[in-house]
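Example 3.
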Amino acid sequence: MGEVILKVENLRKVFGDFVANDGISFEVEKGKIYALAGENGAGKSTLMKMLYGVYKIDGGKIYIDGEEMTKYNPTIAREKGFGMVFQDFRLIPAFTALENVFLSTEGTGFYFDKKTLRSKMIALSEKYGLSMNVDEYVWRMDLGQRQHIEILKVLMNDNCRILIFDEPTSVLAPNEIASFLELLKVFRDNGFAILLITHKIHEIVEVADVVHILRKGILTHTFYKEDGLVEDDIVAEMIGKGEDSATGNDLMKIQGAFTGKASTEEFKEPVIVGKNMTIKDDYGRMIIYNSNLEVSPGMILGVAGISGNGQRELTEALYGIREVSSGTLTLNGEDIANKNINEHLKRGIRILSEDPIRDNLVPDYTVLQHMAISGFNYKKKGLNIDWHDVRKQFDECEDIKDLNVPAPDRRAEKLSGGNIQRMAFARAVIAHPSLLIASYPSRGLDIATVGAVHDTLNRLKKEGTAIVFISEDLNELFTMSDRLVVLSENCINGPYKPEEFDAQKIGEIMLKGAKE
Amino acid sequence: MDERLTKVRSFLLRFLIGVVVSFGIFSIFLVTQKQNPLDVYKALVTGFTTSKYNVGEIWVKMTPILIAGMAALIPAKVGLCNCGGEGQLIAGALVANITGVYVCTDWPSYLGIPFMMLMAALGGALWGAIPLFCKMKLNMNETLTTLLMNYIMTRLVAYLVFGPIKDANGNNYPMSARIPEQLRMPSFAGSRANFTIFIAIALAILVWFFFNKTEIGFKMQAIGGNERAAQFAGYNVKKIQIISFLIAAGLSGLAGGFVMSSVEFQMREATASGLGFMGFLATGIVGDNPLLAIPSSLMLAALSASGTTLELSTGLRAAASTIFMSIILLTIFALGKRRKS
Amino acid sequence: MDLLSNFLLNTIRSGTPIIYALIGDLIGQRAGHISLSVEGAMLMGCCMGFTTCYYTGNLPLAILVSMVAGAIIGFLQVHFNIRFGANMFSLALALNYFATSITTYFGAPMVSASIKGFSRIAIPGLSAIPVIGDALFNQDILTYFTYLLPVIAHFVLFKTKLGVALRSAGEVHQVAVAYGYNVKHLKYGAVMMAGMLAAIGGCQLSCAYTMTWTAEMSGGRGFIASALVILCSWKPLRAYFAAYMFGAAQALQILFQLLVVPIPTNIVTMAPYVVTIIALAFISLNKNPTMPEELKKIGRPLEIMN
């Protein structure tokens, strides 16, 4: 029986009328890994923020080392040995790892003692196997290494004994996930208590000693490792029996499982053909080298890959905003490489960029005005755009209603990320494109809208649109794609048919490239 | 539409408050200079209401300020910062003078004046083309290059009036020859103002119409809002930016031509100095709204013209009116939208 | 060799105000705020410093008064931007105009007056070195300080917590906030420091270099300093090169006069500005990854009230 560090009783948190957490009670012992599982919106994040002192509790008690915490905030939490590794890395790309850790540590005085800090960081990273070059600039590091810096920051606190991780594996590649899980075990064996917020069942089953299930803000069930952890049971508890069962997509998302599509779908002649394409990134490096790509009408081509492997460059080249340095790219036999964008727009090529704020957003313009920018075909009234016509098209458009696009008069700069995503996606699809390039279309959207997005894509598919679909979620890719390619090792690997959709295999290709 | 009306109304209100507060602050200054504020303001008002000439001076100043304001506003709408209106305007005046004195000396008015104005515009456009090239080809920050070009132009003028274009009959003063009579624009009776003020106002209205009521204006503002988004939309960003900037610089030059042909007639070191800069400020304080630039330029022109009136009636050095102007400018800034901290 | 020594002397003396304004604006830009108002701050320092010297002859007081004047300009620059949302470029130009109007008005009676300002202090031994001794080691105290200023700035920015925090504010604002740094305070401090330093530079210009005052004396040096910050890639130690490059262009004027070179003065006075633009061209060709991220986000130059 390990020593109890943290105990919570009946924790409650409300935001106005909304009850985010209620009646939460559990204990945390040294040397154990606790998983907090639940769907999006189940209250996991809120609970963590209460435990870390970011949110004030509206009811219940927190005991640390047996002592009730009447006053509690992140500073006290840190003193008591809590360390939180956030999902959004709080790092400055232009700084080195050393400088980033220095920025985050308290009480290091006026002078930046690089030597001492460096040796401490190296010692810690060696102890726990967190490989890194402490003097490297963060912008050169991949996401796995950046996470190591975040973990180091937390470990710099000598008091640290509880580690809280918020969705730590959402940005990692399959092998990085494996070494991360090993890392958790190392921490556990070194006496740390670990709280893991996640919805990934495989990982829970692999490392957790205790699994708390959160549903609608309440702790509904706890599973213990000694009793044996069964995936299906966990999933069932997360979704709940009977009332609001999730849709097929959600289930697959939660389960980390997939169902392959009918494998023998024949497609017509490819309409987009890229041969021996070489595409350079902003630094002149050949991020995609001598590769081929084919998309047929009515086909969804999924594009998998660790981020930073040329997704952005590929989509920009297809759209015409980036040069295809060598090779050919044709649409219906006509060369579209390196032509200007107007030609592409006329041919019905549309894009949902990976960063609509950077690439599509005109802050002062309203939603309606955005729709007139490469969205609707508008009529002109003299020298001016016929805004009545645009408004009419907007009001009558089905896609816009289905996707919950915000009101036409709202200013873009005031929209939330999710709303911007909706607007940008809607604009791309209303033009009934012949080729749609969709980068991470589900990002930032709630489950219902993700469903609408998937429905729209499927509908476009039936209408004959060729779709290039980029996502970081293998499950989503496996569900939606008719064919899949993998970007890795500067190559477009594939295409793979649905019968080849295996997380293990594709994961390996994402890391090492195809062996042929 | 309602939203825009309330915006304009709130702006005008803030503008008024700004002016009133500035009067207050300036009064404090006046007191320290042993002046009675009320006397000064009375002198200002009477100076302008009783003399047609003085009123005319306002239009004389307002014309180039308003046009230069457009020269700052148009590039801003497409995402460029043209701080070089000052130098471009002077370039226009210079070219107008040289054209008038050496090229069109014997031409009749109806040919000579338009030609001079055309040359002036080209002069301004050329001066603006240099920093534009630096920006487009070399990706150099145009705010700084246009600012630096202003200083180069003033020195160029100094060089020229001390040497190459010095008036042989000018008693060796550093100034150029005067443009011939027939190339000077006719003015209204009793003042130095002329019809160019109407051109300036019409221009501002045209610019407003252009940006708010045309497709190309819509596209241009999209470029200014997010250049990359405009690229994604297939707009020819570089071309539009280049044309806009050159037109703007040309307008500055044209304003300089107007100044040369309406009031200056000859080139000295200080000719037309400060007008381009004031135009920049005039549109800067109204958030690049062409219509609001009209009253804004009027105010700055009135204040600027008040310098001499002040000096004559109160003995206060002319520079005092510039202090008043800068107080007003800063006060208007202070009344801008409060940022949520 | 007398000419060369003289040339070097003037190069350094001309470069001094630039180093002050450059380091000042550099610190401000590292915090994420561009202060084109260093021009106005310099002018204020120039006039206020001269006025103090003229009426009291008290040199330390002159420096102090300059610093206060510069700090006020800096304060207005940052406060009006953060609190009132004023666009930093338009605001800077308005502040420069304010400085011009105030200094022209109050400085009018002193135009062409001369003072006994900061005299040059020779460092024994070192100042006897042929050619460079006089130029480097026989300067006024304000110039001596500029020998150290870039080094101090470098130390603070890269080797202290304050500096790292300030740079983080200029890189990723949210991260600095997340770690509990008061970004607002950092920006206020940095921009006021920019104004203060630029003003000291102005003080040197009127009280040590020329010992006179004329209207608009700063003549664009503040803008040049702002441009040179880019040339330095925001690294303080490069300020020596940038400032003395400008100083050399300025010193050329005097040299040409002495050599009776037949290039008209007015053309030669263009040199510093042209040189700055050319320098900017060179640096812009190299895609420098060292520009503070927050500066890249500054778009739309001409908006204040919207």
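The CA atoms of residues 285 and 333 of chain B lie 7 Å apart. Chain B touches chain C through 58 residues (CB under 8 Å).
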